[in-house]
């Protein structure tokens, strides 16, 4: 067993035309010996967003804090702290922070996915 403090993991920052104000951390991955799932934590700044994308694996998300919107099923849906989200394989999705505080999202992906 390993107990990790996510804030001690160095973030990867995303700033581009497609993604804005995103700090992402792999808190459980290959380095920790994970062989089936990886856990990532995304912090999305006020007004920030992940890129709109899809991939051939499902994943699960948990909104730890903040509020925003997630694009899925062809529409925007409000999300807030405490919401759990299932994104099926090949579904286009995106998260954006429309709140007034940092949006923190825990994301679980299969080990076939890139860690980030």
If you had to describe this structure to a student in words, what would you say it looks like?
- The protein has strands at 12-14, 20-28, 37-49, 59-65, 67-72, 75-80, 84-87, 94-96, 103-110.
- The chain has one domain: Jelly Rolls (Sandwich).
- The mean pLDDT is 97.
- A six-stranded antiparallel sheet has the order 1-2-3-9-4-7, with no helix packed on it. Strands 6-5-8 form a three-stranded antiparallel sheet, with no helix packed on it.
- The protein contains no helices and nine strands.
- The relative contact order is 0.27.
- It is mostly beta strands and 116 residues long.
CATH superfamily placement: Jelly Rolls
Shape: globular
What's the architecture, going by CATH?
Sandwich
Rg over CA atoms, rounded to whole Å, is 13 Å
> Would you identify the regions where 5 or more consecutive residues have pLDDT less than 50?
none
Structural class: mainly beta
- Strand tally, please? 9
Q: Which fold does the CATH topology refer to?
A: Jelly Rolls
CATH class: Mainly Beta
Keywords:
9 strands; globular; three-stranded antiparallel β-sheet; 116 residues; 51% strand
Please sum up the structure shown.
By secondary structure, the chain is mainly beta.
Helix and strand topology:
Layout: E1 12-14, E2 20-28, E3 37-49, E4 59-65, E5 67-72, E6 75-80, E7 84-87, E8 94-96, E9 103-110
